[in-house]
Structure formats: C-alpha cells, structure tokens
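Our consortium's second objective concerns turning raw sequence data into structural hypotheses that experimental partners can test. To show how far this objective has progressed, the report includes one record in full. It was chosen at random from the queue rather than selected for favorable results. The single chain below, 394 residues long, was entered without modification.
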Amino acid sequence: MRALTFHGTQDVRVDTHPDPEIVNPRDAIIQITSTAICGSDLHLYDGVIPAVMKGDILGHEFMGRVIETGPHSTLRKGQRVVVPFTISCGSCFFCGQQQFSACDNSNPVEKRDMSEQLYGTPMSGLFGYSHLTGGYPGGQAEYVRVPYSDVGPIVIEDDSLDDDKVLFLSDILPTGWMAAENAEITNGDTVAVWGAGPVGLFAAQSALLMGAHKVIVIDHYPNRLKLAKGLGCDVINFRESNVREALMEMTGGIGPDAVIDAVGMESHGFSFDNMMDIAKQTVGIGADRASALKQAILAVRKGGRVSIPGVYGGMTDKFPLGALMEKGLSVKAGQTHTQKYMELLLGMITDGKIDTTFLISHRLPLEQAAEGYRNFKSKQDEFTKVILKPGMGA
C-alpha cells in the first residue's frame, strides 16, 4: 500500500509499505477514504516531538470502510467508520472512567518505558504519532490496522453524510469540544481562545454552543481570524494589538472568565521569552515554546479557568507559576478522551447544530501529501485544513 512516511525533520514522502494484517482478535483493517493533516502533525514534521523515527507512517485523523475483522471485533465488513485517534482497551481503570486517552493497556510493553521516564506514567497508544505513544502506524495511508476496534470507531450509518462532515470526529472536533468543557463555561462567560487553527476554531464554536456570551479569538492570520468572525467571535490580531491590554479593554478591566490555549508547543510571536524559547528549541534545549500559554495565564481574570488542548511534549522555561497560584486559577489539560464525545457530536452534526466543513481549504490525493504538509506549514493563512483522499486521482 501507499502511505505518508516520516524521513526526517520537514521530510515526509509517500512510500510503498506492506499492507496491514490482523494481529489480535479485536483488530480490524480499514480502507481509508479520507484522512486529514492535523496541526499536531506539524510538531512531528518540525521534529519537536521526541521518538518519531524514520519510516513511521503518520496520520491520526482518518475514516474509511471496514474490509477485514478479527474474531472479537464488533465491526462488520463494509461498515463506514470514523476512528478515534486515541487507542483504548475499554476495560482498564481509566477507560472505565471514560478517560480513554489515559488507557493503561494500549501502549505496548516494549514502548512504555519511554513515556514513563518522561512523564512519570506511561501514555496511552495513539495512531501515527510518536513511539512514546506506541509507535502505531497512522492513517495517512491506503489501509490501517485498528487495534481494539470494538472500543471507539463510530459507525456512520447514513451514507448521505459526506466524509467532510464527519471526518473530524476522529480528533479535532472532540478536542475543541473537550477544550471548551474543560474551561467550565457557564452562560454569560467571556472566553478567550489563543490560536485560530482547526482546534481553536472548534473550541470557539463549542464555547458559543455551551452558552458563552463572548468568545475572543487571538491569532495573526487574517483568513483564520475571518473564519472566527464567521462563527460570531470577536478577534484580536496579535501583530497589531497588545493582547493583554486589548482583553482588559474588552472585559471591563477584569479579564476573560476562561482562556483556552489551542496553540501548544510552537508559539509564534516576537516577545523576548518566545524568542529565547525558539533559540533553545532550535538547539534542542527546552522543548516547548509556551508563550501563548504564559500570555493566557497572565490575561485570565482572578479565579478564572485555564484549558490547554494545545500539545506540549517536554519542559518549558519561565513558567508563571506565581500567577497560577496567586490568582487562584484552575487548570485542565490532556489528550482528548475522543470516544467519550463522538456519539454526542455526531448527533449535533446530523441535527445541523455543528458545521465541520467551514475550515476545509484543500482536498488532495494521498500522493500529494508531502506538498500538503509543506503548504500547511508555510502558508497557514491559506491552508487552514488539508484533507487527503487516497482514492482521488492526481
């Protein structure tokens, strides 16, 4: 089969690999019909996520048709499914708490030590990411093996629902929803979202659905800010305004009730701390550029809530721990418990309450995936979301 393969920093290529096979009784094999490039794929592309190896197949947002099942899979051949990016056993303590991204069994034994040494406990398995998360082949391919296929893949019964409408159930829509949920939004809240990428836009959309009175989105790409305005959000261009001063002015001098960092470990901007972080990240000292998160912590009101869906992989310097404590802030973060939200969000899509298609800018054949990565990285204002179609002619 053909699959998008990691060869090194900013070097990905579509190569030929052996077709996947059933390994365990709960496995299923999916023929991919649509797969997306995620903002967190760019962290792999940029070489800032540890333990990504040459030859790894990338991609964790995908859907397709079931073509083969193990004897204990609950899926049937021919079913159309969206697959969550988190791999979860469904039976451990954490899955029992619906904390699927904390699954204790999906990261293979031989891989667990790496994340345990870095984070204190082993991470769960994720598709197409790092060997910290199991090193599972991803879905930017013609076919993929889905372990624990009886836990999570959601069957799309209605063939009239285009892939574009449901594909993002695999990651970014539940991630945006959980980000807003973690911000504990109540009616009338003002919420500030850093980052108008796909997760930030879905977090903003979710916050409005949860009753936020005002959502303010912060970015510097005009087209992405235009998309945020289209959702009914206010916007701040951080190239043109002092973000904290603007937020204070927009909130009567109090600050937002809740803030969401949808940027993660590769913040942009020319603040002194971010420029120092960029220099350290370039030479491999200090993995995370957390400028957006630091700004969010300083901007939120006293007693406010901080939600972090943006991906961080290691350590960061000059973290405002004092502000966190002295302002009495609450913080929630984490990889998304995708399986927990898929059915709810599918219902909201079919009811017309959520539109998932507005941010798609490009649809490309799988063979043009490297070009998709290059442009998604370098032309972020134009390339807001790239969908790869293995069956599309070049």
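The partners drew two points from this record. The longest strand covers residues 28-37. The mean pLDDT is 93. Both points have been shared with the crystallography group to help prioritize constructs.
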